[in-house]
Amino acid sequence: MGILETAKQRLNGVYVALKESLKGVHLGKTQADDIDVAATYYDGNVRNISPRKIAELLKSADEGDISAMHALFYEIEEQDPHIFSEMQKRKSAVLTLDWTVKAPRDATPREKQLTEWVHTALTDFTQFEDVMFDALDGIGHGFSALAIEWQQVNNEYLPKTITWKPQSGFKLDKKTDELKLLRQGEMDGEALWPHHWIIHKHRTKSGSLARAGLFRVLVWTFVLKHYSVQDLAEFLEIYGLPVRIGKYPEGTGKEARRVLLNAVASLGHNAAGVMPDNMSIELHNAADGSHDPYMAMISYCEKAQSKVIVGQVLTAQADNTGSQALGNVHNEVRRDLMVSDAKQLAQTLTAQLIYPLLHFNFSDIDASRLPYFEFDTKEAEDLASIVSVIGQAVDFADITVDDFYDRTGFSKPQKGDELLKRKIGGLFGLNQQHTHSPNCGCQTVSLSQAIEQTNDAAVKKALTVEHELATAVDQLPDRYLMSYENTVLDVVKALKATNSYEEAQAKLYELMPGLKADQFTEAMGQALLVSDIAGIISNEQ
Description:
By secondary structure, the protein is mainly alpha-helical. The chain has helices at residues 3-23, 51-62, 67-79, 81-95, 109-124, 128-135, 138-141, 215-238, 254-270, 292-310, 324-361, 383-393, 401-408, 444-453, 457-474, 478-496, 501-511, 517-540, and strands at residues 99-102, 143-153, 156-165, 170-172, 179-183, 186-190, 197-201, 242-247, 280-286, 372-375. The chain starts with a helix and ends with a helix.
C-alpha cells in the first residue's frame, strides 16, 4: 500500500472519529454494558415479605432509592400467575395494532423523503417488535429503560441492538425526577448518554416517577393474596384428618417423647406408626372448617388486580354473574387503556428513537417538524355498512377520496399499482360517477376475461349472453345516456331528499316548470329502454 493511500485512510479515520464526536454517538457499545443484571434482582424471598418491609421499600423509593422496590416488582410479576397473565394482556393488546411513520402536517418533499427513510429503517430493524414489548414493561414499573447500541452501515448510523435493562439498575434524582444509572462508588449515579437510551415513562397516575407504575398498587394485593394461599395450603394439609393426641407416662424421657411424636405424625400421613406399649394415641373428631374464607380473599385480590391492570374483571374471570353483554361493555374500557398505552409509546418512540436516527444521519433536522410514529387505533367497522353509507351520501354532500380510503382502510393506489376491474352493468351502472361511452370497456373487459378463464360450459354461456347485452347497452347513442343522466337522475336525486309521499309529490310540482313536457317524455322513454335491456340481462343471469 502506498504512502498516499495510507495517509488517506488515516485522514478518513480521523474524519469519522471527529464526526462521531460532534454528533455525540458511541459506536459498538452501550452505557450499561458493564452492569451486572443478576445483581440488581431482589435478594430476599418475595413470598415471605412482610407489609412492614414493603412500606420501607416504598418509602426509600420516594427518597430516590428505587432499586430494591423495582427488584421486588420484577419478582412479583414472575411469581404471581394472575398478575403475569393480566400484564401480558395489557402489553400484547398494543402489539396487535398496525403502525406507521407519518410526515408532519403540510410536509415538504424533503420531509416526506425523511419520513420514508425512517419508516424503512424501523421496518428493516428485526428487533423492533421486541423493542415495543420491552418498552411496555413501563406499564407496571412506571418506566422502562432500553439501551441503544449504534453501528455504522454504508455511512448511515443505525441501531445494532436495543436492549432492555432492569429498572433496579437506576436511581431517581429526587429534585429533578430524572433517572440516573447506578454506579458503584458514585452516590448520585451517572447521567444517561443522550440519544443512547429509550426511557419510556408510562404514566398511569400523576406525580413522581417512583409512584407512577401499576405495581405500586398491586404490591399490597400480592401480599394479601399470598398470605391467604399459604393459609389455605396449611388448612388443606390437616382438613379431614382426625386430631391425634399422644399420651406418655410421667417421667418419660426426651428421646421417648420424640418417638411418640413421630408416631403421631406418621399415623396422620401414613396411617401407621410405631411406639412403646406403655404409650397411647387417642383420635378425636376430624379437623373441621371451610376453605371458603381463604378462597374469598384470593378471589377479591385477583379481581382487584384485574381492575387495576386491564380495567375490568369479566374477561379475566368467568363466574356465575358474568354475561356476554357485560363482557363486551367492559372490553370497551380495556380498549381505552390500549389506546392510551399506544399513544404514550408512540410519543416515546418519536422523541427517543426517530429523532436520534435523524440527528445522527442528517444535519438539517427541525425538531419541531419531525416525522412521527403512530399506531392505528381506529375501531374495526362494518365495511359493507361504510361503503353503503358513502354510496348514499355522495348524492347529498361532497366526500373526498381521502375520507373514503381512511374510513374503509383501503390503501390509496399508487402509480403503477395493479387495480381491480370495476364491473358495471344494468341501468344503475350508468351513474353520476361514470360517463358511459362505446369505447370505455369498463364491463366488457372484465366479462371477456371471465369468459376466457372459466371452464364451466353453463357459466361460459351465461357470461357470453351478458357480454353481448352489455355491449349493446354500451353502444347506445350518447343522447340516450346524456338525456337520462341530465334529466332523470336530477329528479331521482331530488326525490331521495324527501321523507313522505306528499313531500315527493310537491317536489315534482316544483321541478316540472323547469322541464319541457316533450323533453321529460323523451327522457323517460329512453330510461325505460335502458331498463328493458337491464331487465333482459338480469333475466338471462
